Amino acid sequence: xxxxxxxxxxxxxxxxxxxxxxxxxxxxxxxxxxxxxxxxxxxxxxxxxxxxxxxxxxxxxxxxxxxxxxxxxxxxxxxxxxxxxxxxxxxxxxxxxxxxxxxxxxxxxxxxxxxxxxxxxxxxxxxxxxxxxxxxxxxxxxxxxxxxxxxxxxxxxxxxxxxxxxxxxxxxxxxxxxxxxxxxxxxxxxxxxxxxxxxxxxxxxxxxxxxxxxxxxxxxxxxxxxxxxxxxxxxxxxxxxxxxxxxxxxxxxxxxxxxxxxxxxxxxxxxxxxxxxxxxxxxxxxxxxxxxxxxxxxxxxxxxxxxxxxxxxxxxxxxxxxxxxxxxxxxxxxxxxxxxx
Length: 341
Fold this sequence. Notes:
The protein has 7 helices and 20 strands. It has helices spanning 89-92, 108-116, 185-190, 203-214, 228-241, 270-280, 311-318; strands at residues 2-7, 14-19, 35-39, 47-49, 55-58, 76-79, 103-106, 125-127, 140-144, 154-162, 172-179, 217-221, 249-252, 256-258, 266-268, 285-288, 295-297, 305-307, 328-330, 337-340. It has 341 residues and is an alpha/beta fold. 19% of the residues lie in helices and 26% in strands.
């Protein structure tokens, strides 16, 4: 199975496409067993908080697509918070509610805002429940149909983990796991499904493929950053139960951004929080999120203090000198994608 991460803007809009570990014959439409998730879509236009006199932001680099109609329809759109650079009305209205099967999963106040536009039906916009390991219903589960009547269905899980006592509502994480559907050898033979060409026919390779199919791909997305203690419960219970460790992808800011205390204090937790997550969950890949140098206006523009980190600096922080291992640290350009096996 694989995950393709595509960066649609220079900030925190990503398209995640999960696929099973088979080479399917070419065909129009999406690959059977695949699942796609669009994160915090904001393609163009301004993001204004309260009024343009207080805070207005614009992209400094154009997005790689002009409209959401230019990408395949995602299965799920995630809106992680109600701030307009994440819950962007102009961009979300590019979806076509009368034609789409997409579900919008949104932080509760963001869901309330989106529903107030009366553009989508209430069923199309669903609020997250906050993560609580004692409440199994807080995890949203999406069934992926099996390959044929004797196959085993796959599943995507999505969880919303807000930081405790965060008055700004900025610091949260969204946890995602993907377990692909499985097919019997008879079904694979009947429909011409193949193992990936990179897989050899040796017993070791077969064992390796089986092991990968028994586990889930895992992603944690935290556009403003969150510290490890806030997601520890999720990791130690849900990710363990889903066989989703080590963490495959961490989408988290590199840079630390601070406002004066009277304007909310920490805007982006940046490298310190992300490093803690990467080390504890043995993250394989850390991709920069929400680090765009945007065009800023309003009274808040000159008050931010930014501490920047390079990919090399972060890679050195996550490296384990005893094992000689660490996290692959990546910055994706606009339109660039990364494929992870």
